[in-house]
């Protein structure tokens, strides 16, 4: 108010600013019937101005005093809130000798509901709506930082299935803490956004809110209340995910179908056709555009997906082009460019109203797939992909440990809790009659697993770990179950988590980081060799054994992808580490593990992840902007930055490790120059960090956790029959 009054005074006195034009009109019109302004007493004007100035100063002083009072009250409220939160926390947390506060910084994985491939997706009915409303919803979605990444067809399909909901004034559209399953677009009326009892924002027509809920089931982080009678348009998570999956699969099947019609590729198997389909780019050419020019070097292959093109040629000594024919949707041209660099023998010109092509550049094709002639002459069978190094990885199923054959759940006693997760905890245990050896017992609450629809993930963890025999992966010895829990008896790695070491050291030096990453590379090579994608790589899931070698644990998000080339669609991972294709629900495969590996390299050396934010959606939006928008710390040299950038390419097909050279390309990267990979695999090198472990029951390298007082209810649906 004070600012506005001063602005008005300044304009009134000087005639400047935004009011100058209106003042001139007023003065000119007034001059005809009022004495000239020059006759006004200067002294009287000065007195008025002085009085107004004093009034303004008094008002400013009063406002400043009120601002200080509000600020003091705000601090007092914040102090009280913090005291209450600490009081509540202290009832449930036992302080760790290392720092209980840091435990809050551990990153938790998130996952959408599991769905089986046998399920037939139900069609979602289209909801009729006026053109004006469709436009409002479409504009809202396209303005949203996250949803603007969807293509036009996906947006249109989403708009079609959204349905209306009406709320009366004062009603809550969203309540903080409730599980979310819908996104909303405001149509009519206004809304308040409420956090901690305070209005922190407002929402009006044409705005999106609640978008996190379409990715996975998570509690709402704020409440949204109608100020007046309102209407919203609703998108359910299951509808969004079905649209994203079916549209991507439809597009993929169409591309593979096009490729099968190309003679050069007809002998390639499904895996390679799938890879090529992933490399194809969409390009539009307006009418009259020369897609191919005669006598220029060719390096690109084209499949006509929409429109028509004409083929012309200029004969030697002539100026006029001779037309040889017209190509239509589904036809292709320029395929020789995939075999060799050669001059084009004709022109290809887009016809009315333009042509859309799927294109394939020779260079990325060769990097990602290989030489086409070699592929054609090589025989490909459907046996599993073997790991690139065979000395320490042997593919088995259901490894048997005879010493534990007759051991029952009641034969164990708990020593300490060494980890806590979303569905349970991990205890260090030993046999009551033999304390010379310890194990890690992972116990998961069955009812919570069912409530969150995570049965498939838990079952995947069991079956995958049973088949793993890599020295860089924690062993699963046996499983148990009772009415409330399923149990996994695992290898105890008493050196603690890499996360704990990173917390205490702030960051790793190149030598330690290189060793950790090398161990992870060995684990990923093994998993990818048996067609398993891990999907939750982070320091929290890396443990040190007695010697200091790193092992990958917690396979709750791991999945076997068969047949090869297949993708999976469930949102899985930890927000800071998920790849763009997971965020956008495009379907993903083992390429996501290479993205996460790049994030891990950055995290180990910088102490923080490259993508962060106050809310998960902030993190996802940062991820979609790409690694190019990230600032690297000074301790990361150009060579290290190069590795991170190669691993974190937004296009999965461009990531190092995922291309023709496979994971061996990562081992050959200059960041690993001089590293003894053979010594690592044979475990005859000394790790840079050797943990101090007193005895088989020593849990001192782990944080201290409180006992779990929550006793879950019985669960007897039978999903755990094979445990």
From TrEMBL:
Superkingdom of this protein's organism: Eukaryota
Keyword Secreted: no
Signal sequence residues: 1-18
Matching Pfam families: cNMP_binding (PF00027), Pkinase (PF00069)
Region (Disordered) residue spans: 95-129, 701-723
Active site per UniProt: 536
EC number: 2.7.11.12
Domain Protein kinase residue range list: 412-672
Chain residues that bind ATP: 442
Keyword Heme found: no
CDD domains: CAP_ED, STKc_cGK
Coiled-coil spans in chain: 49-90
Keywords: ATP-binding, cGMP, cGMP-binding, Coiled coil, Kinase, Nucleotide-binding, Serine/threonine-protein kinase, Signal, Transferase
Catalytic activity annotation: L-threonyl-[protein] + ATP = O-phospho-L-threonyl-[protein] + ADP + H(+); L-seryl-[protein] + ATP = O-phospho-L-seryl-[protein] + ADP + H(+)
Domain Cyclic nucleotide-binding, residue spans: 146-261, 264-386
Catalytic EC class: transferase
Residue ranges constituting the AGC-kinase C-terminal domain according to the UniProt record: 673-723
A single GO molecular function term of this UniProt record: ATP binding
InterPro entries noted in UniProt: AGC-kinase_C, cGMP_dep_kinase, cNMP-bd_CS, cNMP-bd_dom, cNMP-bd_dom_sf, Kinase-like_dom_sf, Prot_kinase_dom, RmlC-like_jellyroll
Family: Belongs to the protein kinase superfamily. AGC Ser/Thr protein kinase family. cGMP subfamily.
PANTHER family the UniProt entry points to: CYCLIC NUCLEOTIDE-DEPENDENT PROTEIN KINASE (PTHR24353), PTHR24353:SF144
Protein name: cGMP-dependent protein kinase
Organism of provenance: Aphis gossypii
Lineage, highest ranks first: Eukaryota, Metazoa, Ecdysozoa, Arthropoda, Hexapoda
């Amino acid at each position: 108010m004070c600012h506005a009054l001063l602005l008005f005074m300044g304009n009134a006195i000087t005639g400047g600013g935004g009011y100058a034009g209106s003042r001139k009109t007023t003065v000119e019109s007034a001059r005809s019937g009022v004495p000239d302004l020059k006759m006004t007493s200067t002294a009287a004007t000065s007195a008025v101005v002085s009085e107004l100035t004093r009034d303004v100063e008094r008002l400013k002083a009063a406002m400043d005093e009120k601002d200080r009072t509000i600020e003091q009250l705000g601090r007092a409220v914040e102090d009280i809130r913090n005291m209450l939160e600490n009081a509540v926390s202290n009832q449930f947390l036992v302080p760790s000798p290392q720092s209980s506060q840091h435990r809050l910084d551990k990153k938790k994985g998130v996952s959408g509901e599991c769905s089986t491939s046998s399920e037939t997706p139900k069609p979602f009915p289209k909801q009729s709506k006026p053109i004006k409303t469709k436009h409002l919803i479409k504009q809202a979605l396209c303005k949203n930082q996250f949803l603007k990444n969807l293509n036009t067809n996906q947006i249109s399909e989403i708009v079609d299935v959204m349905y209306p909901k009406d709320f009366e004034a004062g009603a809550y559209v969203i309540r903080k803490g409730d599980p979310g399953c819908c996104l909303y677009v405001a149509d009519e009326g206004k809304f308040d956004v409420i956090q901690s009892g305070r209005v922190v924002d407002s929402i009006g027509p044409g705005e999106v809110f609640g978008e996190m809920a379409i990715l996975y089931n998570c509690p709402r982080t704020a409440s949204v209340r109608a100020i007046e009678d309102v209407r919203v348009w609703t998108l359910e998570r299951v509808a969004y995910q079905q649209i994203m999956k079916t549209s991507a699969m439809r597009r993929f099947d169409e591309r593979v179908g096009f490729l099968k019609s190309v003679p050069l590729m007809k002998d390639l198997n499904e895996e390679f056709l799938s890879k090529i389909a992933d490399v194809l780019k969409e390009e539009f050419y307006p009418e009259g555009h020369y897609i191919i020019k005669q006598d220029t070097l060719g390096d690109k292959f084209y499949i006509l997906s929409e429109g028509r093109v004409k083929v012309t040629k200029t004969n030697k000594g002539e100026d006029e082009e001779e037309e040889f024919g017209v190509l239509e949707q589904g036809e292709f041209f320029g395929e020789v460019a995939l075999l060799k660099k050669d001059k084009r023998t004709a022109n290809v010109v887009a016809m009315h109203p333009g042509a859309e092509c799927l294109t394939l550049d020779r260079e990325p094709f060769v990097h990602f797939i290989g030489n086409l002639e070699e592929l054609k002459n090589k025989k490909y069978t459907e046996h599993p992909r073997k790991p690139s190094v065979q000395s320490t990885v042997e593919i088995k199923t259901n490894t048997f440990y005879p010493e534990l054959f007759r051991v029952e759940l009641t034969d164990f006693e708990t020593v300490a809790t060494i980890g806590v997760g979303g569905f349970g905890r991990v205890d260090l245990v030993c046999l009551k009659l033999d304390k010379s050896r310890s194990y890690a017992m992972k116990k998961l609450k069955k009812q919570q697993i069912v409530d969150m629809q995570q049965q498939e993930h838990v079952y995947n963890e069991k079956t995958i770990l049973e088949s793993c025999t890599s020295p860089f992966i924690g062993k699963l010895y046996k499983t148990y179950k009772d009415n409330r829990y399923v149990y996994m008896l695992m290898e105890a790695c008493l050196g603690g988590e890499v996360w704990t070491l990173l917390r205490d050291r702030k960051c790793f030096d190149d030598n330690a980081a290189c060793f950790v990453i090398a161990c992870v590379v060995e684990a990923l090579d093994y998993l990818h060799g048996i067609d398993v994608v891990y999907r939750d790589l982070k320091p929290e899931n890396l443990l040190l054994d007695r010697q200091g070698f790193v092992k990958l644990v917690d396979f709750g998000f791991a999945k076997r992808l068969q047949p090869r080339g297949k993708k999976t669609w469930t949102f899985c991972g930890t927000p800071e580490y998920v790849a763009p294709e997971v965020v956008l629900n495009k379907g993903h495969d083992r390429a996501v593990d290479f993205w996460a590996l790049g994030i891990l390299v950055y995290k180990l050396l910088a102490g923080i992840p490259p993508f962060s934010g106050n809310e998960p959606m902030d993190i996802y939006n940062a991820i979609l902007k790409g690694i190019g928008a990230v600032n690297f710390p000074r301790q990361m040299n150009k060579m290290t930055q190069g590795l991170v950038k190669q691993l974190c390419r937004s296009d999965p097909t461009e990531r190092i490790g995922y291309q023709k050279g496979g994971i061996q390309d990562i081992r050959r990267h200059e960041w690993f120059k001089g590293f003894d990979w053979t010594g690592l695999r044979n475990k005859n090198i000394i790790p840079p960090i050797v943990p101090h472990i007193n005895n088989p029951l020593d849990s001192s390298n782990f944080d201290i956790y409180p006992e779990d007082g929550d006793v879950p209810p019985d669960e007897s649906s039978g999903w755990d029959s094979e445990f």
